[in-house]
Specification:
The chain has 56 residues and is an all-alpha fold. The protein contains 1 helix and no strands.
Length: 56
């Protein structure tokens, strides 16, 4: 006969894993879908593709 603590501990472990893993995976997928591709990013006319507009 299996002690009752073993299945109880296993059930609590599954709940704790799903409590943390499921939201992380959900947010990760949302970020991937929202991330713009490099073709979507275009420099503005004021920027001219330069990170810094210093006069040398």
């Amino acid at each position: 006969m299996v002690p009752m603590a073993i299945p109880s501990f296993g059930g609590m472990l599954v709940v704790m894993i799903s409590l943390f893993v499921v939201p992380v995976l959900y947010c990760w997928l949302k970020e991937i879908r929202m991330k713009p591709t490099t073709s979507d990013i275009r420099p503005t006319q004021a920027d001219n593709g330069n990170a810094h507009n210093f006069k040398e």
